[in-house]
Structure formats: structure tokens, C-alpha cells
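Cast an eye over this sequence plus C-alpha cells and walk me through the fold:

***
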Amino acid sequence: MASQQPPSQNMIRTDLFNLEAIPGRGKGLIATQTIPAGTCLISEKPLFTTAEIRSNDVERELVRIVKALPKDSQRAFLSLHNNHPGGKEPFSNIVRSNGYPLGASSEVGGIFPNIARINHSCWANCQQAWSSTRKQETAYAVRQIEAGEELTIAYTIGGPSQERKSRLKEFFGFDCRCEICSLPADKQKQSDEKYTRAAKLDDSIGSPKRVKTSPNLALADCHALLRLYNEERITDNRLQRLYYDAFQICVLHSDQARARVFAKRCAETRAVCEGNDSADVVEMLAYSEKPSSHDSFGGSTKWKQAADAVPKDLASDKFEEWLWRSEIDKDCLSLKQQAPLPRSKTQKDLLSGVVIIPTSQDRYEHLSDIHIL
């Protein structure tokens, strides 16, 4: 059977949204009808990438690159927002204001004029991602979007509102007034407390040593983080990252039954954000069929269990108790005394301050070298 070829043309669902002027926000994309979660809204080739820069004189190189574009592409680039107007490097500043890395770990960025029109919200309804299959940047609806609602993505994620606002002001030059940054003071305090705890849990889960020596506590933290995400209605790629972390914890300790469930949930949540043709979705579906094929499998036999040991007749609540080992591990780490671990960010000099959530390969990737009796 012939393999499916990546699309060569842009796919812009203009039947689902319009570009409109929005008071206080410039221009943005407004839904014209109800859009289901998992809908691909934009799949777009870059006008150009930073890989085309051939010398250290970046501004001059960008002028050369843009001049070589077709006239309509030149106009599209020059119409993009510049977060640093009046500077001596207008072309460089447009790239800094609108560029996206071609993947979470890529040092190469691209300009995608349609996706660049999607404004920010800390509670975004869309997720942008680079598709290595299509060689395009994509934007998917991560929850149902109603007619009249603005399409948004999160330029920065996590942390309490003042941290988010500070990052947005530094990188993009605006004061965020999104839904969760404009809550009444009492509700803002509650939300900030949850985001602060979520950040601490995520840092704790990211400790390879803890995953190795205290997997029960690491998995309990994954479960606690999932509850916080549900309370804050988070439906973006942070969910798939959480499920991938849980998968890695289980597969490292030879629990194939739970690992295959987490792998499937990771694939399902990622497909909503990136499409069924995402290379990471395909990979996670393969792990859901054969968890033992993962490089980290068998580092420990502490939780050894066959892949076919997934219970089939449990009620939903009982299945979740089994999955998260709630009845086995009653204790859960208190994070009150635990300092957060440092995190790496993917922010290149010529790219915007948009935080790209690391791909599934970025965390615990060296755990395949760990063997525990």
C-alpha cells in the first residue's frame, strides 16, 4: 500500500473563522460556527525559515530573503505585528515577534503568517505544533469553540498570573487581560495557588532520581497534577506530557499493563492537539500495543506485570483507582518543603518567547541506561 504523502499546499479553514479587528488586541481570528475539539484549523508551510540566513548580518539577510519572496508573501510578512516598533532592525523584530521553532528542540524557526494571527490567552482553545510528517506548522482546536469566540493559543504556560504576565510583557510587550488573568481577586488567588502547585508537581515529576527510587510517589504526583488540570480546564499538550510521564514511570518499572493504558491516553490527547498523523501519536499507539519496546523498559522489575493484565470488568472509578495505584499506594509526597527543579526552555534569539512544550522524547530520555534490582 502506498504511503500517504504530506500535503504540499497550505490548509486554512476559512469556512470556520474570519480575520477581524478586535478592540485592544489588533486583529484576530473569530470562529464563525461551532468548532469541535480536534479540528485542524490551519496547516501552513513557512514563508521562510531562519536556516536560510547565511551570514551574521541577520537584518540584511532577512531583507534579502523577504525581497526574494512573491509579492503577496512579502505583504503577508510585513503586515505581521512587530513587538518592538521603531527599532533599527524591523525585519528581525518581526521574526522575533512571530517566529515559531520547527519543533520543540529545533534551533530553526519559521514564519507562518496565518498562525501568527492567533492571539494569546492563558486559557487557550487552540494548540500550535510543528508537524514533522507534513513539514508544516499546525493549529488545532483543543476544546469545543463556539461561534463568536476568538481562536487563541498560549504564548506562555504555567505559573501564577503575575509570572505569566511578566513573561508576556517581556517577550510580547502587552498586558494580558485574558479570562483567567481577569478573574475577581478571590478567584484569581485560588487559580494562582493551583497553578503554583501544578508547577511544583511538574518539577517533581521531572526528577529522574525520584522516578527511579520512588515511582509510587511520582505516579501519585501525576494523578494530583491531572486533577489540577481538570479543575483548571486545561486541555492542551500538557495533558499528553503528563500521560507520557506516567507511561515512562510504569514502563521503567516493568508494569506493561498500566503503561499501555497511559500510552493510549497520551496518543489520544496528543491527537486532539496535533492530529492522527502526528509522528508522536503513531509512536505512542505503537507503545500502547507493545510497551516493552520502549528503551526504558525493564530498568526495574518492581512493578512487573504483563501487558494483558489490564482489568476488563471494573467500573470507571475502580479502574481509575487501579490505574493510578490509589489502593496500593496510600501515601503521597507533600511538596511544601520541596524546591522546584530548574527547567529548560526552548527560546532562541530570533524566535518569539512562545514556550513550546517539550516532545515526549525530551524527559527521562536517559532512563534506558538505568537498571535497578
